[in-house]
Amino acid sequence: MKYHSTRNQIANSALSPAAALIQGLAPDGGLYVPVTFPKPNWELADLLTLSYQAIAEKILNLFFPDFTPAQIKQVVADAYADQWDKDEIVPLVKHAGNYYMELYHGPTLAFKDVALQVLPRLMTRSVTLERLDKDIVILTATSGDTGTASMRGFSDQAGTQVLVFYPYGGVSPVQLKQMLSQKGRNLQAFAIKGNFDDAQSEVKRIFNDEQFKDKLAAGGYQFSSANSMNIGRLMPQIVYYFYSYAQLVNRGEIKLGQAVNFAVPTGNFGDILAGYYAKKLGLPIHKLICASDRNNVLTDFFHTGTYNRLRPFYLTNSPAMDILVSSNLERLLFDVDGENDEEIKAWMKELDQAGRYQVSPEVFAKLQEIFASGYAEEDEVEQEIHRLYDLDGYVIDPHTAVGSFVTKQYQAVTGDTTPTIINSTASPYKFPETVFHAITGQAVAEKGLPAIKQLHTLLGGELPQAAAALFADQPRTEKIIAKEDMETIIRQKLNLK
Ligand SMILES: *Cc1c(COP(=O)(O)O)cnc(C)c1O
Q1: Cβ of 320 less than 6 Å from ligand 1
Q2: Which CATH number characterizes residue 246's domain?
Q3: Is residue 10 pLDDT above 80, yes or no?
Q4: Bridge pairing between strands 160-167 and 187-193
Q5: Domain total of the chain
Q6: Between the CA of residue 376 and those of 159, 407, 417, what are the distances in Å?
Q7: How confident is the model at residue 11 (pLDDT cuts 50, 70, 90)?
Q8: Closest by alpha carbon to 120, among 172, 173, 88, 83?
Q9: Quick check: pTM over 0.85?
Q10: Residue 443 lies in a domain
């Protein structure tokens, strides 16, 4: 089992899973994908009685065979333990005729925990496997959820340093509190005076700066990344597609082998790509419904076959989906296009230089078979939260509401009655301001922690442990820097010459 880049398949350039995991992104700018997609050595029927952890072991063993099954077992046992609010890790509930797969019961209240509890544990073991004599530096630009979940996942993991950069004033009050409260001797977070794209492009520049890499190496460090392009983040997300399917069979809601749909609130296309990989592994999926917010570049793409990032960028009430270039789409195109790396390279170059590309009619036809798509405006997001709450008191967050709204719209337009699972990607308590407003029509009295309290008073029930913990933690003071100073800060913090 080896991995190679979507842009360059020169013979012998393939890497072991551990090496690809440390590399993160391929040096040619492409993304690592399996040279030969693995075939399960088990049947769907074998999974029905298994725990979340046992299914996770089966999936991870397929994609990371250079670790021993005992190592994978330990990684999984540590990743999915009592830092989760629910024993089943990912509960599945039914409301208004659809199923909601709650992926947010982990330590930072969003679905990124599912993968970011695994990635750091695989990373430290990869360093040993590859006999790397350097510490790993995780450099992350974040608009919120990735920063909190990476800091939590990497907290005090041996041989790693985490440096997070986020836009000053540009993350939600709850996310800010989470980042400033997260304990760990190897963690640092900085607010930059600029927007998310400023942070992201400076991180990318530093990441690819050869001179800087030499300085890092001399200091005993090597860069890696924890973003959703890393195979260590992508593959653990396949697990919950299988797990939720097994739950539906076990409950008698569907027959074994019957097809289901998944609706996925999408940003960087990592979550929904994991669904596509689940389908490749044999999970009976009819449609993958790609749900976007007002930044609907993917909706247009799946309707026209043209990807066009030249459009206004909107900050919305579903911030984790505010994105114009969905990186993981490249992996889907590579697969659907018969692994034609030259064509992928050409399309990505067009995207970079002209801001747009158009896929071939053959690729477009294949995408249409598997994917449906749609988007929700901000007021539709609030209406959807309100609709579900009114119906039976079920509360969803704004990202999940995008998925839910688009599902309802898809079902009305197509008449498709296939059982549908909506990926529920964040806890309502992570975005209390929007949720409170959607339900009551009133603004919260004060943003952040007071808003959590106000929402909890309204909803009653138990507060998630990760939300309750925020009230106890003493936050550090925010460190604010100029965007030009990012490189200097990294150098200082790592004691580089
Ligand atoms: C990151 C995130 C998404 C988008 O997931 P992708 O894998 O980037 O498509 C959706 N919802 C929430 C709450 C997120 O944090």
Answers
A1: yes
A2: 3.40.50.1100
A3: no
A4: parallel
A5: 1
A6: 43, 10, 21
A7: low
A8: 83
A9: yes
A10: yes
